[in-house]
Amino acid sequence: MNEKPTMMETAGQMALPIGVTWGASFLCTMYGVERPLLSMLSTALPLISLFLLYRMLTVYRRMFPSVSWLHILRLSLFSSLLAGLLTDAVQYVYFLLLDNGRMLSHLAEAMQSEEYRQALKQMMPEMNLEEMQEMMQSMTIRSMVLQLALFNAMLALPFSLFAALPVRTPRKLQEDKEQTNKQE
Question: Are 156 and 77 in contact (CB under 8 A)?
Fold first, then answer.
């Protein structure tokens, strides 16, 4: 049988297409303010990446049927964390080279809207809107990317869990176990 690669090798290979998909979703979100079609695509890409990870985990489980579901979950988590790091790199490059303050200007415009202000007051009544606006305008690229990196890491666990949950033991292995149980 095939020699099983290490967890990190496999996770790195699985993380690449997932990270590219997440990076594209981030870019579609940033440019989707002016283009609604890109905004819709930014919503669809994470769902596509979830399916991609599920399929890669399923193929891995078929290749190595003796691995446990816990192993699949760890592989999924490592892949998601590595994909998050790749997404962090895309976000850093975007804010460093492409954004030029565009995101903050869009947020400032939105905060001038009375409907947006009312919605924020309802969601966070204790928050002072002027303080929040000053805080957002004083953010550096490093602090924005650090917050996004933390957000990406927190999303990795539920994402990896959703991808790994439906991965089952291959049918042939299940049938062999059932036959063994019947013979005993």
Answer: yes
